[in-house]
């Protein structure tokens, strides 16, 4: 099949590459010329494990192409995926301007039947808007072209995106005509071999499913963070509580890790957008409100502990930060808790020396005007002569450092562990003052 993917970000590039890898001809489009230039040059603009190799091999096999020309993409494919960004508007609702601009551009040159699929995370009702935008252009051109609109939200996780796409838990397809469903069913057939993974439903339900999934995961995190704050006040250890409840299969172990807040390009914006959708329909989604409020506060929990440890005087102190990305295995720093922590430290007159295995380049753009933020090339260059260590992202490489070396490097042997990756008793024995999340300190 010939497939076009409009929007070559995390989702579009992974989707396009994986479809190409199973034998389709794929054309990826982006209106960001420098991104496309980079890809044409064989480089990829993001860090995602395994992606660079997969992109290269599919380019070499002539199954994967890149362009900035949307008209070419419309002419090229049986199925056109819209995978552009849907960032939050000022009021928290999803900004659909990119999605609708693509729909408009499709309508301007459409001449034959196509299935137009929204892969971006979009509020209920967006597919209908896409259909209207395409039809308006056809009407303006006074042409009659048949087309289908479908919703196929994406559930991949950054950091494990290829595996998630190749072996999906489920593929949700929202459609209201059989022709679209059959085309999408055959496109996904290679990912659906062992057992049925396609869940076909009406379009509004498919659109809502994506928000429901992200809101549920964010709720689990905020719930545990809320409990961790309570555990601290009760002299309980949230890590033991986590194990105690996770062993119940009705609860399970996934997504109940306490920490210094969730970030990324999806959970914060999707929780806000769903909340906004609810309000637009006259419903006050109280749980979503609380999920967001708890998360905002949680991003500052480590700052409060640092303040308390140093009696509120951080001026002139330097802190090592391990982990900048919002989670391990990605360079994505959108809404990352590290940003709240760094900004808070700077506001208190402190300096930061940060290390992240892959997000340093991204972070150096964000903090390029900040003289008080420096970046280290490895773990121990960050901690040398620092007044304390703050762990913000749970990269594997941070789990078992050389504590003897760390202790000799730090001016004061204190560790603020925003992901509970260390054992408090072990660190106490090694001579550190340890602060975790939800553990009595
Ligand atoms: P991204 O910002 O990485 O990529 C979006 C791309 O779209 C950019 O390269 C941008 O230049 C391009 N673009 C914008 N307008 C365009 C236009 N008119 N024509 C062509 N290209 C255009 O975003 P992303 O993280 O890939 O997310 C895309 C969508 O998928 C969002 O709705 C997001 O919520 C959703 N999603 C993201 C993830 C994730 O983990 N990142 C997972 C599931 C779903």
From TrEMBL:
Keywords: NAD, Oxidoreductase. NAD(+) binds at residues 30, 35, 86, 121, 158, 269, 334. It catalyses: UDP-alpha-D-glucose + 2 NAD(+) + H2O = UDP-alpha-D-glucuronate + 2 NADH + 3 H(+). The active site is at residue 266. Residues 320-424 form the UDP-glucose/GDP-mannose dehydrogenase C-terminal domain. GO terms for molecular function: NAD binding; UDP-glucose 6-dehydrogenase activity. It holds the Pfam family UDPG_MGDP_dh_C. GO terms for biological process: polysaccharide biosynthetic process. Substrate binds at residues 155-158, 210, 255-259, 263, 327. Its EC number is 1.1.1.22. Pathway: Nucleotide-sugar biosynthesis; UDP-alpha-D-glucuronate biosynthesis; UDP-alpha-D-glucuronate from UDP-alpha-D-glucose: step 1/1. It is an enzyme of class 1 (oxidoreductase). Catalyzes the conversion of UDP-glucose into UDP-glucuronate, one of the precursors of teichuronic acid. Belongs to the UDP-glucose/GDP-mannose dehydrogenase family. PANTHER family: UDP-GLUCOSE 6-DEHYDROGENASE TUAD. This is UDP-glucose 6-dehydrogenase.
């Amino acid at each position: 099949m010939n497939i076009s993917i409009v929007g070559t970000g995390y989702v579009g590039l992974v989707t396009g590459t994986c479809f190409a890898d199973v034998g389709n001809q794929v054309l990826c489009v982006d209106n960001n010329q420098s991104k496309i230039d980079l890809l044409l040059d064989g480089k990829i603009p993001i860090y995602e494990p395994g992606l660079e190799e997969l992109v290269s091999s599919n380019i070499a096999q002539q199954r994967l192409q890149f362009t900035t020309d949307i008209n070419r993409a419309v002419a090229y494919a049986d199925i056109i995926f819209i995978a552009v960004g849907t960032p939050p508007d000022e009021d928290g609702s999803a900004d659909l301007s990119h999605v609708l601009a693509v729909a408009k551009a499709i309508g301007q040159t459409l001449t034959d039947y196509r299935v137009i699929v929204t892969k971006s995370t979009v509020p209920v009702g967006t597919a209908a808007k896409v259909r209207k935008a395409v039809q308006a252009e056809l009407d303006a051109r006074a042409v009659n072209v048949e087309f289908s609109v479908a919703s196929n939200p994406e559930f991949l996780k950054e950091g494990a995106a290829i595996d998630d796409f190749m072996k999906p838990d489920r593929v949700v397809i929202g459609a209201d005509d059989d022709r679209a469903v059959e085309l999408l069913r055959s496109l996904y057939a290679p990912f659906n071999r062992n057992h049925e993974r396609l869940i076909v439903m009406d379009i509004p339900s498919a659109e809502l499913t994506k928000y429901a999934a992200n809101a549920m995961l964010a709720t689990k995190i905020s719930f545990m963070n809320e409990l961790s704050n309570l555990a601290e006040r009760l002299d309980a250890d949230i890590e033991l509580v986590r194990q105690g409840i996770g062993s119940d299969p009705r609860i399970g172990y996934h997504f109940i890790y306490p920490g210094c807040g969730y970030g990324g390009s999806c959970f914060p914006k999707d929780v806000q957008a769903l909340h906004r959708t609810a309000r637009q329909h006259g419903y006050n989604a109280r749980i979503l409100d609380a999920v967001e409020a708890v998360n905002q506060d949680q991003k500052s929990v480590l700052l409060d502990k640092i303040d308390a440890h140093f009696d509120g005087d951080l001026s002139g102190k330097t802190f090592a930060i391990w982990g900048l990305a919002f989670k391990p295995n990605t360079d994505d720093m959108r809404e990352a808790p590290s940003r709240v922590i760094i900004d808070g430290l700077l506001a208190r007159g402190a300096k930061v020396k940060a290390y992240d295995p892959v997000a340093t380049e991204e972070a150096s753009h964000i903090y390029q005007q900040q003289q008080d933020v420096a970046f280290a090339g490895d773990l121990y260059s960050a901690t040398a002569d620092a007044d304390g260590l703050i762990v913000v992202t749970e990269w594997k490489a941070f789990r078992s450092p050389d504590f003897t070396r760390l202790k000799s490097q730090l001016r004061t042997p204190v560790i603020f562990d925003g992901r509970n990756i260390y054992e408090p008793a072990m660190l106490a024995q090694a001579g550190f003052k340890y602060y975790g999340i939800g553990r009595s300190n």
